[in-house]
Write the structure tokens for this entry.
Amino acid sequence: MVVVDDAEQGLGVAEALEGGGLPVAEVTFRTSGARDAIEAITADHPGMLVGAGTVVNPRQVDEAVAAGASFLVSPGLSESVVRAAREAGVPILPGVATASDIMAALELGVTTVKLFPAGVVGGPGAIKALSAPFGQVTFVPTGGVTAANLPDYLALSSVLAVGGSWMVDKELVVAGDFAEITRRTAQAVAIATGAGPRG
């Protein structure tokens, strides 16, 4: 999960992520430069899977898709956002925090959801509990995910992937410390593949 202010920062982060072995980025729509960053990354890094995060309305769906986003992520569940994403032909990962949210997602035909904020709503324990009544649902936890708890999430069969921002801390991005972003990314990839230590 990447927060950048402009295309230049986006390109720096993209190169750092690829250098660390993670050619995937969710560029959040929290800043005015997000669209430019997505356009720049998709143009300069064609092998990278680039999505737009924090998409909260249909207008942002259109903007993100026009910029080249391959997938969309939303912090919550919005029927209008899900429908707009479907109309655009782009996968969407809506956020859920409760069993009621999951039921609403299922009514929309969504079976893969973002658990957010995962650390606040119970972490791996919450996913285990929610997986019991919703065995058909897969989760992508974000919010409070760290190098230390990453393996706990990935050990769950109902977890499809994990989203995190500790590798691309905003202070590192602003400082242009892309070498540290690469190092943290490589560490995260090593942990995820079982080749590295936690923390």
About this structure: The two ends are 19 Å apart (CA to CA). The longest strand covers residues 24-28. The mean pLDDT is 96. Residues 20 and 165 are 14 Å apart (CA to CA).
